[in-house]
């Protein structure tokens, strides 16, 4: 990824060392418009970052966990596999340099880059299967949400909710807050699409398809005495992996640029979901460390240009026409994109932070005086109550069906859709503007000097400058600097400023004791069931692999 950390343009067959007369400044814009490969680089990078940043959205520490229906398990929250620390500002450039120099001398030693290209294509094709599978699965989720949304709005502004478990649509009474079932809506399709399911049989079939596509499936794999793996995923995830395998094989044998670009985009997308700086300070430090690395490797060594041009693998975006080739290394997307994804999550954090309410709570405590008597005191304090989190994943179909014609935003009545997709994004948009400006300056330098440019030379100041200037202009420098995703901000909304003998503290202890007892009872019950199963079942599975579809409620009741 780091080896392609540059933007290179081989214009009209000129070598990188050939001097060329620079075009006039007024011709820059016209040249960019007439060279579609330049615009393709900019739009592709922005699209990948936009998708990756939205895919990385998680519950911010300023929001309460998702409320689930009675009888349903609490969904497991995704966490980043790796959070960058302050030391990574030094380690990233060092490791990237070691990798880049190793690839350069390996290419020089082999004399034929095709040998290394074949190995790299095979290796990265296998590695990209998981990334492409995740991107394909999430894309299918978006398509599914367009057909089977959870909410939609009619011409009168009435918000309809679709309940897959109960297999009906309902509206919420604005006065009483009660659910009113809409009897003439027998299918899970929204709006005008409901005419496709006039009969009860067609409606049942659509409810079944919706259930299978939106609910989680269970995958189990076990080898006796060695391994047992159990995890949940959606049908779209399975379909995504089925798509990714032949796609990766096609790239390995054909090597087309369009296939390489799609796989490169998928690896960028997966990186955004797994890797993130812990704070804005750490993210800025990592970017500026790689800023220095990029300048040194492009301007003062032959390593970057040589590896980027000779290595044919999905580590860069490549756009070409009959006369020129324009390339952008994945590092120029992932490195600033990680900080831009953090900016979007900070926007979501600020959105829920503004919704925190303070509720008065009366604390009663008993104080033992010197003469042995107890004095009861009552104190009124405030408790911070967070708004419940609305998962933004799979909400784009809801946004489409809850947005009236001619409007860009969903109706205010669809509050959950608004919270998930239309929350204010000042920091993310500022970083997008900074990234776009950096890319345009990079392309301008290519036209002027006809030489490969270190894109991070222009992208890092553009992105970091846009973020910190926005924080200064909004008077939120302290909030931006103090924001962290290490878990320290995710505190419970309880009042803790009470005495050791207070009734609040005693109640909390009793709850913990009760919870411990219930867990112990559950463990005894499970142990008893396992023992009975062991006695009843004389044989055991040596090898087991299964994929279980989600149980349908109405069939279970029958």
From TrEMBL:
<feature type="region of interest" description="Disordered">
    <location>
        <begin position="501"/>
        <end position="532"/>
    </location>
</feature>
<keyword id="KW-0812">Transmembrane</keyword>
<keyword id="KW-1133">Transmembrane helix</keyword>
<keyword id="KW-0256">Endoplasmic reticulum</keyword>
<dbReference type="GO" id="GO:0042500">
    <property type="term" value="F:aspartic endopeptidase activity, intramembrane cleaving"/>
</dbReference>
<dbReference type="GO" id="GO:0098554">
    <property type="term" value="C:cytoplasmic side of endoplasmic reticulum membrane"/>
</dbReference>
<feature type="transmembrane region" description="Helical">
    <location>
        <begin position="427"/>
        <end position="449"/>
    </location>
</feature>
<protein>
    <submittedName>
        <fullName>Signal peptide peptidase-domain-containing protein</fullName>
    </submittedName>
</protein>
<dbReference type="Pfam" id="PF04258">
    <property type="entry name" value="Peptidase_A22B"/>
</dbReference>
<feature type="compositionally biased region" description="Basic and acidic residues">
    <location>
        <begin position="522"/>
        <end position="532"/>
    </location>
</feature>
<feature type="region of interest" description="Disordered">
    <location>
        <begin position="1"/>
        <end position="20"/>
    </location>
</feature>
<dbReference type="GO" id="GO:0033619">
    <property type="term" value="P:membrane protein proteolysis"/>
</dbReference>
<dbReference type="GO" id="GO:0006465">
    <property type="term" value="P:signal peptide processing"/>
</dbReference>
<dbReference type="InterPro" id="IPR007369">
    <property type="entry name" value="Peptidase_A22B_SPP"/>
</dbReference>
<comment type="similarity">
    <text>Belongs to the peptidase A22B family.</text>
</comment>
<feature type="transmembrane region" description="Helical">
    <location>
        <begin position="253"/>
        <end position="275"/>
    </location>
</feature>
<feature type="transmembrane region" description="Helical">
    <location>
        <begin position="287"/>
        <end position="305"/>
    </location>
</feature>
<keyword id="KW-0378">Hydrolase</keyword>
<dbReference type="GO" id="GO:0098553">
    <property type="term" value="C:lumenal side of endoplasmic reticulum membrane"/>
</dbReference>
<feature type="transmembrane region" description="Helical">
    <location>
        <begin position="325"/>
        <end position="344"/>
    </location>
</feature>
<keyword id="KW-0472">Membrane</keyword>
<feature type="compositionally biased region" description="Basic and acidic residues">
    <location>
        <begin position="503"/>
        <end position="514"/>
    </location>
</feature>
<dbReference type="InterPro" id="IPR006639">
    <property type="entry name" value="Preselin/SPP"/>
</dbReference>
<feature type="transmembrane region" description="Helical">
    <location>
        <begin position="455"/>
        <end position="473"/>
    </location>
</feature>
<feature type="transmembrane region" description="Helical">
    <location>
        <begin position="38"/>
        <end position="59"/>
    </location>
</feature>
<feature type="transmembrane region" description="Helical">
    <location>
        <begin position="80"/>
        <end position="107"/>
    </location>
</feature>
């Amino acid at each position: 990824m780091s080896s392609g950390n540059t933007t290179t343009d081989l214009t009209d067959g000129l070598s990188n060392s050939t001097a060329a007369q620079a075009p006039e400044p007024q011709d820059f814009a016209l040249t960019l418009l007439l060279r579609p490969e330049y615009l393709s680089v900019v739009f592709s990078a922005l699209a990948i970052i936009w998708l990756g940043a939205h895919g990385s959205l998680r519950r911010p520490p300023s929001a309460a966990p998702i409320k689930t229906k009675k009888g349903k398990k609490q969904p497991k929250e995704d966490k980043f596999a790796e959070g960058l620390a302050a030391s990574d500002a030094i380690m990233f450039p060092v490791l990237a340099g070691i990798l880049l120099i190793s690839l350069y001398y390996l290419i020089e030693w082999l004399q034929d880059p095709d040998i290394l290209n074949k190995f790299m294509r095979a290796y990265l094709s296998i590695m990209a299967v998981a990334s492409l599978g995740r991107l394909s699965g999430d894309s299918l989720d978006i398509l599914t949400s367009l057909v089977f949304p959870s909410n939609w709005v009619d011409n009168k502004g009435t918000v309809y909710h679709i309940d897959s478990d109960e297999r009906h649509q309902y509206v919420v009474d604005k006065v009483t807050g009660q659910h009113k079932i809409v009897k003439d809506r027998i299918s899970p399709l929204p709006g005008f699409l409901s005419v496709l399911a006039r009969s009860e049989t067609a409606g049942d079939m659509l409810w079944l398809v919706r259930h299978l596509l939106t609910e989680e499936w269970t995958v189990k794999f076990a080898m006796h005495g060695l391994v047992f793996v159990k995890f949940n995923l959606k049908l779209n995830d399975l379909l995504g992996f089925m798509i990714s395998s032949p796609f990766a094989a096609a790239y390995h044998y054909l090597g087309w640029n369009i296939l390489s670009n799609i796989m490169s985009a998928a690896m960028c997308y997966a990186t955004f979901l797994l890797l993130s700086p812990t704070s804005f300070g750490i993210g800025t430090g990592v970017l500026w460390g790689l800023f220095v690395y990029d300048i040194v490797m492009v301007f003062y060594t032959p390593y970057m240009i040589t590896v980027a041009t000779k290595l044919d693998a999905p580590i860069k975006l490549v756009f070409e026409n009959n006369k020129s080739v324009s390339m952008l290394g994945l590092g120029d997307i992932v490195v600033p994109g990680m900080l831009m994804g953090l900016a979007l999550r900070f926007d979501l954090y600020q959105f829920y932070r503004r919704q925190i309410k303070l509720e008065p709570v009366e604390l009663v405590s008993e104080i033992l005086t010197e003469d042995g008597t107890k004095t009861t005191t009552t104190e009124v304090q405030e408790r911070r109550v967070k708004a419940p989190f609305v998962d933004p994943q799979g909400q784009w179909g809801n946004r489409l069906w809850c947005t009236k014609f001619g409007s860009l935003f969903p109706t205010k009545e669809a509050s959950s859709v608004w919270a998930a997709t239309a929350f204010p994004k000042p920091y993310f948009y500022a970083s997008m503007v900074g990234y776009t400006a950096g890319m345009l300056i990079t392309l301008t330098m290519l036209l002027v000097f006809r030489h490969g440019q270190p894109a991070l030379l222009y992208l890092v100041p553009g992105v970091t400058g846009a973020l910190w200037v926005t924080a200064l202009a909004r008077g939120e420098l302290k909030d931006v600097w103090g924001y962290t995703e290490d878990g320290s901000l995710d505190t419970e909304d309880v009042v803790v400023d009470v005495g050791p003998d207070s009734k609040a503290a005693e109640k909390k202890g009793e709850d913990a004791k009760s919870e411990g007892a219930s867990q112990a009872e559950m463990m005894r019950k499970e142990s008893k069931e396992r023992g009975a199963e062991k006695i009843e079942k004389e044989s055991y599975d040596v090898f087991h692999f299964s994929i279980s579809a989600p149980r349908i409620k109405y069939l279970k009741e029958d």
